[in-house]
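Worked example 2:
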Amino acid sequence: MADLIPLFRSFIRVVEAGSFTAVAQEQNTSQPTISRQIAALEEHLGCLLLQRTTRALTLTEDGRAFYAQAQLALEAIAEAETSVGRRKGKPTGTLRLASAAVLGRLHILPRLPRFLERYPDVSVELVMGDDFTDLVEQRIDLSIRVGALTDPGLVARRIGVSRRVLVATPGYLERQGTPRTPEELRQHNCILYTRLATGANWPFTGREGPISVPVQGRIRVNSTEGVRAAILSGLGIGMVPAWHFVDREIETGRLTILLPDYEPAPHPIHAVYPTRRFVAPKLRAMLDYLATEFELDPLLSAYAE
């Protein structure tokens, strides 16, 4: 059985990566070596697991069935390894943690020193970016996501709430005037985040219920870091999470909150991971740590239930 475990792992990674070459690079070996491992596994099982063409790898019916069972087998082995002896319940190893760039820079990286001091046998690889992250394909252990979740296959735990505010610099408002209603935003230069689910329509909640206002602007940005920088540079009005501003930009008057009676509905903050069948101690440690840290931060929990 011990000789089969590396073959199981290579097969699972080939399915996830869709490439023998990519897995060979991960394991610091050659493509023919990975190909021989898969062939050896197929010979042992007596069936074809993958259809190979010059353009793609496709799972056979047997391959799909075996892939699911192989994942369960490796999870069971990992659970057994961490349940006995000196490693029982002890967080160890490298944790791959994903988040949006601005969230990682402002609220996760500053919290890592205390985490690493508390868990000296854990290393963290932080993957930051606004692109959608496929947890399985990119081997992410834990991801922090803001907004509604769309993947029902992930396990999620709500760890905070993201209050959103409409802000601009006093300089911009002196030049262009201050909007008094959401409709007046149509005449303003709004900083547009191109990845926003609602596009160029900004949602608000007023005394008469939810409304959506189409906005426009000369600045369009595909990253939350860019939106934050554009607002602080006085380029226009932006709708962003309040936690973007950790240096008291609002309290000191560097930024002005607009339309406080029409504040957008807050977004949930979730920690998500691929499976609940086996939660590694390192993942559980980070999950509980960030949940506690976010709960204590008014910027991340002011509207938490």
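The chain has a mean pLDDT of 87. The CA atoms of residues 42 and 48 lie 6 Å apart.
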